[in-house]
Amino acid sequence: MDDVEEIGLLMKAAMRESERRINDVLRPLDLTASQAEVLDMLDRYGPMSLSELGSLMVAEGGHPSRLVDRMVQAGLVSRRSAADDRRRLTLEPTERGRVLSAQARTAKEAFRSWVSSQLDGFDLGPARAFFATFLAETEMGETVRQRRDKAKIERAHGPDTKA
């Protein structure tokens, strides 16, 4: 196995382990990691179109329409006509979705604590640079950039600002 193959295998294994652990902490809430991500984005950044949501999600295909359809049917997300254009639909969490979003953020803290303990004392700068370089000029790299930019706006203006 050469270095490139091993790095690829390590990335895949880390992603699978992360997904398994996140799904484990979310299971008591009857949420998947993808559902929790949708709720978090809508709760954190306010109503948005399906296209806007898709641009912020790290998901297969980058378009979460089937996922959102199931969440609407489950009463976690609602669709409404946009105030500025009745032809455009916006998504927002229902009250139940907001409650589950907050519970999911709390549950995922167990995962974040585990990651922090695994990486205690490790300089994440080189790893961040590696992944940024690896994802440069890709759709997923752009998704990460958009999420990072939204998070910066949220930190600068507070969590109640819907940017």
From TrEMBL:
Residues 142-163 are annotated as: Disordered. GO terms for biological process: response to stress. It comes from the Bacteria. Gene3D superfamilies: Winged helix-like DNA-binding domain superfamily/Winged helix DNA-binding domain (1.10.10.10). InterPro entries: HTH_MarR-typ, MarR/SlyA-like, WH-like_DNA-bd_sf, WH_DNA-bd_sf. SUPFAM superfamilies: Winged helix' DNA-binding domain. One of its GO terms (molecular function) is DNA-binding transcription factor activity. SMART domains: HTH_MARR. Residues 4-140 form the HTH marR-type domain. This is Transcriptional regulator MarR.
